[in-house]
């Protein structure tokens, strides 16, 4: 109660800062030294690189809908000899994941292209049959091409005999661009093309955006190489997915058979790739929580080391900080334990030094008194040794709260809310242990 009444006695040994003033106070240490002139800047960059890799891992794990396990106890900061191992593991894991993801994306695009090709062949075959039936009813005679008498215009044998004079371009165009595509063909080719199109029954994935989109299959018939070049440029302008058009029924059958085999193979390979990717992500998810906490602690340690100064021999770091007198023994024990773990031949030590500067105010709280202390700190923190008014607000604040919410209904609601916060106090989803470094 004495600590809550006046605050802890302090001495100049180790630094304890309020969260609101930590940034400003730390920025005052080594103010004339550039960040790039500090000794541990390379280690901080390594920690930032590991944080980038961990961010990528967490993003991929969440994208695969894999739960991220969280430990009840935060892991300690890794030893120096283990930092390089963690860095190598993360770099190796990132390289493997990026390669698997790149191969998966390539397989997915190939499968999408083959699926579009199959849909295009199926729809254009209906175009040819419908046109053939229509042309067979006309029985038109062409003096320029006598071989075309009583034959459909788009018969495959007739196409083969026409050679370079008659050509076809087929593919898929986005639903929103069909009208503009048709107008551009008519204006640019001056009517020397025949455009036939139909909407696909199913939506296909857009390779650029990944969203399911409605597509139209088109078949352009043209005469002459120059017209064909114009048609190809227009297709490129409207981002059409152009695929080769078979010249005969035999070629069409061979293409369809080959596409079916390739699609089945791609489905099998893509399924195995996704399974392997999920296995790698599941294995990484088991350790990613520990790695995130360890990297945060490493980065915090190196930031503090950058704020320290060296002695004349550049072998010893010197720092001045405020420490409660009651924690001096814990500080000495921590220095001894750190020296033992690092295997240093010379142990780290500390001394208390006299000072005329006013120490900061430290008031220890628990989960009950911290709420009242925060209310008092919102108005201002008292000077060192001043009486702390939070002790009296423990009594006065509930009384004033009862005055404001004196009726039974408000009191019942607040009681239920307080009871829920107590019951779910240790719930894993409500704890933010990753913020503690």
Automatic annotation (TrEMBL):
> Membrane-crossing residues?
399-424
Q: Name one Pfam family in it.
A: V_ATPase_I
User: Which superkingdom heads the taxonomic lineage of this protein's source?
Assistant: Eukaryota
Sorted alphabetically, the Gene Ontology cellular component annotations on this record are:
plasma membrane; proton-transporting V-type ATPase, V0 domain; vacuolar proton-transporting V-type ATPase complex
What InterPro entries does the entry give? V-ATPase_116kDa_su
Annotated compartments: Membrane
Membrane topology, record value = Multi-pass membrane protein
**A Gene Ontology biological process annotation?**
vacuolar acidification
Coiled-coil positions:
83-117
Q: What is its main location?
A: membrane
Q: Per its UniProt record, what PANTHER family does this chain match? A: V-TYPE PROTON ATPASE 116 KDA SUBUNIT A 2, VACUOLAR PROTON ATPASES
Q: Which family does it belong to?
A: Belongs to the V-ATPase 116 kDa subunit family.
| Described function | Essential component of the vacuolar proton pump (V-ATPase), a multimeric enzyme that catalyzes the translocation of protons across the membranes. Required for assembly and activity of the V-ATPase.
List the protein's name. Answer: V-type proton ATPase subunit a
